[in-house]
Amino acid sequence: MQRQQMLKGFAMALAGVFVLAFAGAAIAQMGQQRGQQPSALEREYMEIQQRLAEAQDKAFENNPELRDKAEGLEELVTDKMREAGYDLGDIMETMLATQAKMQEARTDAQRREIMESREVREAQRKMQEAQRAAMEDPEVQAAQQQFEEDMLTAMRREDPETDRLFERLQEIQREAQRAPR
What we know:
With 181 residues, the protein is mainly α. 82% of the residues lie in helices and 0% in strands. The protein has helices at residues 2-16, 25-34, 40-62, 64-83, 88-104, 108-115, 118-135, 138-158, 162-178. Helix 3 packs across helix 8, helix 3 packs antiparallel against helix 9 and helix 4 runs antiparallel to helix 8 (138-158). It is globular and about 45 Å long. The relative contact order is 0.17.
């Protein structure tokens, strides 16, 4: 059961990741590098991300057909990963075991050690390879593009400012990339 939930969570993340795909490292690193509170620009970026995430959540809630399409995309991606020769069972077992270890870890150092272990790094590498293989498939690309279009349409119904918010995210990201590091 937990394995099914993890697979479903993985698939929903895969299906919905496009919405916040612009969450660039440049923004996250700006404040971290300075060791300061987030700037006004960083706060705006986070607020926009939150608003888009809420619109995405509402779109899923209010559109059962969108959930069905996400599940269909999940199944297609999983099938393509398996067709490409990846054993998702082994990968998911490692991820579940890692999740349990992380919950038991008492310190950041222990958590870091778990995440940097050879076993976890190998599972992450295999998952990324499997995802890449699936995402290169034309059938997956077409299904994902259709899902993204449907998701954006639903998000626009939930928040008419969706397009403007995405544009502003891109502007902020460009500004962050131009900023000295």
